[in-house]
Design goal:
Length: about 190
């Protein structure tokens, strides 16, 4: 992971940046993020911290220009799913900004992860080779820091079922109320 300071992530670019994921799925993640931001009174330009082992390693700003539609508000009504989709959308942007990977394929339940990742530079050739894994989670309502740690530990353990691949795993847990994204890298050995 490249440790940097103050990046600007454009939510509007989400659809164009992940060629391995269906645009309709990315639209849903985009709108879910807008719903979560709106619910917390967060506006375009909101700042978040990226943390590793509870220590801030970077900060980033999230910009967008597209407004949330009433149609999206009526469609995205299940709070837990909205938070999950929002967390996925933010994790996709973080992976693009802070790693050489991009999401290329949704996993199946037995994998213990949410998505398989490929190298960003390979997608221009539409070569989708699984090169890493990511497990994503989101928290909407303010929770004690211990709950965030528990969620990270749970997600880290969950990735064990695909450790046989020998591929690195990323765990991204976003606490929307605190404006924090927690990042863990796990190197799997066969």
């Amino acid at each position: 992971m490249r440790i940097t300071t103050d990046r600007v992530l454009s939510l509007d670019d989400l659809n164009e940046s992940l060629v391995g994921i269906a645009k309709s799925a990315l639209e849903t993640r985009h709108d879910a993020l807008l719903l979560r931001f709106e619910g917390l009174g967060q506006h375009s330009g909101v700042g978040y911290d990226l943390k590793k082992d509870e220590v801030k390693i970077s900060s980033f700003q999230i910009d967008w220009s597209r407004e949330l539609t009433d149609r999206s508000r009526r469609t995205l009504r299940f709070p837990t799913r909205v938070t999950e989709y929002a967390a996925e959308g933010l994790a996709f942007l973080l992976l693009l900004a802070y790693t050489e990977y991009t999401a290329i394929e949704q996993s199946v339940d037995d994998d213990g992860i949410d998505y398989w990742l490929g190298y960003q530079n390979d997608v221009s050739n539409l070569v989708f080779e699984r090169s890493a894994r990511v497990e994503i989670s989101g928290m909407y309502r303010r929770q004690p820091a211990s709950k965030v740690r528990e969620r990270i530990a749970e997600k880290l353990s969950q990735t064990d079922s695909s450790d046989y691949t020998g591929l690195p795993a990323y765990i991204v847990v976003t606490d929307f109320s605190r404006k924090d994204a927690h990042w863990v890298e796990k190197c799997a050995a066969i």
